[in-house]
Design brief:
Elements: E1 2-5, E2 8-15, E3 20-24, H1 35-41, E4 46-50, E5 59-60, H2 66-79, E6 85-90, H3 92-103, E7 108-114, H4 123-143, H5 145-152, H6 166-177, H7 181-191, E8 209-215, H8 219-231, E9 235-240, H9 247-250, H10 252-283
Length: 284
């Protein structure tokens, strides 16, 4: 399905009915990243997946910043008549999910961040990362998609994905090669880690339930998520055994169970709290 807002046509997919779970993919991904999750859980939930700007079938005439993307997503959720969502994001999609949660906390029932970060701490770090992302963006446009993706698929962050079954690796490869050069370049330049707001200082004020997921082979993001876990008032950190950066691909059954169990437990806990509040009000 398509939704037009602010010079962009977003491609999204809705499967199932009931409690809405929204999933946001990572860089070079698309809503197809979540096919396994949809196939398993669309019978229990309304599963919503979205092609983020610069990816998949989403078409944007102007580049999108992280904040602009979040404003567009809010318009889409209003269009779908969603008042509360369980939001899940992976890597770049995790940064987008956290950014949305910071800007629209009233929409968030639970937030699950897979291999994500709140951005960078200092202006110097952001400046260096922005220069790095600008270089990668130029490389995509100059060398073409195929050469860039051959490089991208070999970076250390994705080494553990070489252990995936060949059909899954091939599907992932096809998903990446279905992208468009300018879209990926704009994503790096306008929604990259160096461009987005740093949310580190805001984490301690976010009181919604948060699940932090990171693979045990992903040492860099273990450190980042341990630091995040100390700041969030209501977070749970789970380090998934025998997984790297893309837990939903490397351990899909474990990933799905962790996400849905967290949603269920959080919902039950919130409902019990509301019932206790009602009882207390009745007694007074």
């Amino acid at each position: 399905m398509q939704f037009a807002v602010n010079d962009t046509i977003y491609w999204y997919d809705v499967k199932g009915k009931g409690v809405p779970i929204v999933l946001l993919h990572g860089f070079t991904g698309s809503n197809g990243t979540w096919e396994s999750f949809k196939a398993t859980y669309a019978a229990q939930y309304m599963v919503i997946t979205i092609d983020l700007p610069g990816h998949g079938k989403t078409i944007s005439n102007t580049p999108k910043t992280m904040e602009a993307c979040c404003h567009d997503l809010n318009e889409l959720f209003c269009h779908l008549k969603l008042s509360k969502i369980h939001l899940v994001g992976y890597s770049m999609g995790g940064r987008a999910a956290l950014s949305f949660a910071m800007l629209y906390s009233e929409m968030i029932q639970t937030l699950t961040l897979e291999s994500a970060s709140p951005g960078l701490h200092t202006e110097e770090e952001r400046s260096k990362r922005k220069a790095h992302d600008d270089h990668l963006a130029a490389r995509i446009l100059e060398e073409g998609l195929e050469k860039f993706l051959r490089y991208w698929e070999q970076i250390p962050l994705f080494h553990s994905q070489r252990r995936l079954p060949e059909p899954i690796q091939e599907k992932l490869h096809q998903e990446r090669f279905a992208q468009e050069e300018r879209g990926l370049a704009n994503s790096l330049r306008f929604m990259g880690t160096g461009c987005q707001p740093s949310w580190w200082e805001e984490l301690k004020g976010f009181t919604n339930d948060v699940l932090l997921l990171v693979g045990e082979l992903d040492e860099k993001f273990i450190g980042i998520n341990q630091e995040m876990h100390k700041l969030f008032p209501n977070s749970k950190l789970t380090i998934v055994p025998d997984a790297g950066h893309a837990i939903h691909l490397e351990q899909p059954d474990i990933f799905g169970k962790l996400v849905t169990d967290f949603i269920l437990k959080s919902t039950l806990h919130r409902n019990n709290e509301e019932e206790n509040d009602d009882c207390t009000m009745g007694e007074s």
